[in-house]
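pls design
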C-alpha cells in the first residue's frame, strides 16, 4: 500500500501524525494558555461545526452524469476569474469526502455543513434525476453519521444548473417552482438530514451575479437585480414549505451575509447613506420572510420591485424559519456619494482606512460580529441564530507539514469572544461553524485566498491540519 492510500484509510490518525506526536503535544500545551473562553461557556448543546460548499470543494465537475452549472461556464471563460482558475478539480471532495469528514471529526467538531450541487442531482435542473449524483450525497451523509457529525445541508450555494440559466435563471419566474421542486426532492431523498438551509447568502449571489456581474452568471443592472431578488425571496419561502411538507420535524433555515454598517463621519448624510446600505446588505432578503415586506423605510427606491409582484406574492414571501444562519466576515463603513445614483452611497474600503485586513481586503473587525448579532437579536421573529460561517484568509506557509497560522487563531479568539458576549447578553445564538474546513476555491478570487483550518496542497491533494485546526481541536476536547 502506498502512502496516499494509507493516508486515505487512516485519515484521522494520519492527520494527527502529519505533525509528529511530540511536537503536536507540545504545541497543544502552548495553545491551552490561549483560550480566552472555554467551549463550556457557550453551553453544552452549542453546535460547533465547519462548513463548505459543493462548487468550492467537490471537483469532478463533469463526472458521473453531473450537468454543468453557471460556475462551470463562468470559470471556463477567460477574464472572469483571477488567473483563469476554475474548480474542475479543486480539493476533489468528490473522491476525498471520507478523509475530509474524518478530519472534521478529528478536530472534535460535531457538525459538517455542505451543499448539494443541483446539477449533480438534476443535470438539466429539472426532469430526470441522476442516480449517481444521489448516491454520492447518500455516501457523504453516511460518512457524517459514521463519524458522529450532524450533516447540515445547504440546498443552494450558488451553482445554478446552466440549463436553467439558459432559460433565464433567477430572472425567470419559473425558477420559483424549479427550485421548490428540487428542494422538496432533496428532503424526500435524504430524510436522515434534520437540518436544512434552503439558500446561502442571497444578497451575495444575487448582488454579485445579477447586479455587479462579478460572479456567475455575470449579469448586470438594477432592474435585473430587483427581479432576481423577488424571485429569490419567493423561492426561499416556497422551498422551505416544500421541505416542511416532506420532513415536518426538520429544522429549516436560510443563511444570510450580514455586516454591521457604520457611517464614515458623524454626518447626517453619511448616516442616511448607511441606512440605505443596511437595507440592501442586511434587511432586503430576511424581512420579507418575516412578513415585514421589503425594507422600503430604509431605502424607498426599492419600491420598484413591486413591478414584479403578482397577486398573493406578499403572503407567499413569508415563512417561519426555525433558525437563521448569520454569516459575518467584515464591517461596512459607508458614506454619502454621488455615485452610484439612486443609492447615493458608497462603501469605504478597508485599504483606504488603514485598518487590519485579510488577504481579500476585508476588514478584520471582531466588534462588528457583536454589533450585527445584537442587531439581528432585535427581530422578534428570529428564534435561533447559528453563525453558519465565519473565518479568514491569510497568507499561509506550509513548512514541511506545519502551518503556523497564529493570526488566524487570533481571529477566531476575537470573533468567538464577540459571539459569546452577544450570547451572554441574550441573543439566541446556538452554533458556530468555521469557514472553512479545508482550503478551497474562492469564487472569482480563485485559489489565492486560503480560508481553511486544514491546508491543502493543491498539487498533491495532501491535507495538513493548520495550527488553527489544532487550536479548535483543543478548545473542543471532550
Ligand atoms: C461566504 C460564502 O458563502 C462562501 O462561499 C465564501 O467562500 C466565503 N463567504 C468567503 O468569502
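designed seq:
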Amino acid at each position: 500500500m502506498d502512502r496516499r492510500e494509507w493516508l486515505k484509510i487512516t485519515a484521522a490518525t494520519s492527520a494527527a501524525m502529519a505533525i509528529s506526536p511530540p511536537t503536536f503535544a507540545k504545541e497543544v500545551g502552548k495553545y491551552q494558555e490561549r483560550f480566552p473562553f472555554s467551549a463550556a461557556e457557550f453551553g453544552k448543546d452549542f453546535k460547533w461545526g465547519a462548513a463548505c460548499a459543493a462548487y468550492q470543494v467537490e471537483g469532478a465537475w463533469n463526472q458521473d452524469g453531473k450537468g454543468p452549472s453557471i460556475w462551470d461556464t463562468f470559470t471556463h471563460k477567460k477574464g472572469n476569474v483571477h488567473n483563469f482558475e476554475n474548480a474542475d478539480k479543486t480539493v476533489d471532495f468528490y473522491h476525498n469526502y471520507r478523509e475530509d469528514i474524518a478530519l472534521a471529526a478529528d478536530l472534535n467538531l460535531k457538525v459538517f455543513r455542505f451543499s448539494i450541487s443541483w446539477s449533480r442531482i438534476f443535470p438539466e435542473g429539472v426532469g430526470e434525476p441522476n442516480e449517481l449524483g444521489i448516491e454520492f450525497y447518500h455516501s457523504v451523509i453516511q460518512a457524517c453519521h459514521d463519524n458522529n457529525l450532524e450533516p447540515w445541508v445547504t440546498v443552494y450555494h450558488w451553482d445554478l444548473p446552466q440549463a436553467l440559466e439558459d432559460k433565464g435563471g433567477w430572472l425567470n419566474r419559473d425558477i420559483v417552482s424549479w427550485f421548490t421542486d428540487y428542494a422538496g426532492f432533496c428532503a424526500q431523498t435524504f430524510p436522515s438530514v434534520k437540518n436544512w438551509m434552503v439558500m446561502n447568502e442571497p444578497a451575495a449571489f444575487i448582488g454579485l451575479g445579477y447586479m455587479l456581474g462579478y460572479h456567475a452568471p455575470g449579469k448586470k443592472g438594477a432592474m435585473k437585480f430587483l427581479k432576481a431578488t423577488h424571485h429569490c425571496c419567493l423561492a426561499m419561502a416556497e422551498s422551505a414549505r416544500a421541505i416542511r411538507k416532506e420532513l415536518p420535524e426538520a429544522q429549516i433555515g436560510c443563511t444570510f451575509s450580514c455586516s454591521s454598517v457604520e457611517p464614515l463621519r458623524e454626518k447626517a448624510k453619511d448616516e442616511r447613506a448607511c441606512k440605505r446600505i443596511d437595507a440592501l446588505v442586511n434587511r432586503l432578503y430576511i424581512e420579507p420572510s418575516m412578513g415585514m415586506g421589503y425594507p422600503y423605510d430604509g431605502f424607498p427606491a426599492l419600491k420598484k420591485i413591486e413591478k414584479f409582484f403578482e397577486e398573493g406574492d406578499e403572503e407567499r414571501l413569508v415563512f417561519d424559519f426555525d433558525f437563521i444562519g448569520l454569516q459575518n466576515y467584515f464591517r461596512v463603513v459607508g458614506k454619502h456619494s454621488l455615485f452610484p445614483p439612486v443609492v447615493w452611497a458608497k462603501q469605504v474600503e478597508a485599504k483606504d482606512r488603514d485598518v487590519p485586513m485579510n488577504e481579500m481586503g476585508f476588514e478584520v473587525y471582531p466588534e462588528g460580529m457583536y454589533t450585527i448579532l445584537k442587531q439581528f437579536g432585535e427581530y422578534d421573529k428570529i428564534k435561533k441564530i447559528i453563525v453558519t460561517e465565519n473565518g479568514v484568509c491569510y497568507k499561509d506557509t506550509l513548512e514541511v507539514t506545519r502551518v503556523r497560522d497564529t493570526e488566524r487563531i487570533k481571529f477566531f479568539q476575537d470573533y468567538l469572544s464577540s459571539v459569546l458576549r452577544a450570547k451572554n447578553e441574550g441573543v439566541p445564538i446556538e452554533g458556530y461553524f468555521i469557514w472553512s474546513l479545508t482550503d478551497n476555491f474562492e469564487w472569482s478570487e480563485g485559489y489565492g485566498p486560503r480560508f481553511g483550518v486544514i491546508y491543502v496542497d493543491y498539487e498533491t491533494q495532501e491535507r495538513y491540519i493548520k495550527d488553527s485546526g489544532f487550536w479548535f481541536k483543543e478548545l473542543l476536547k471532550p
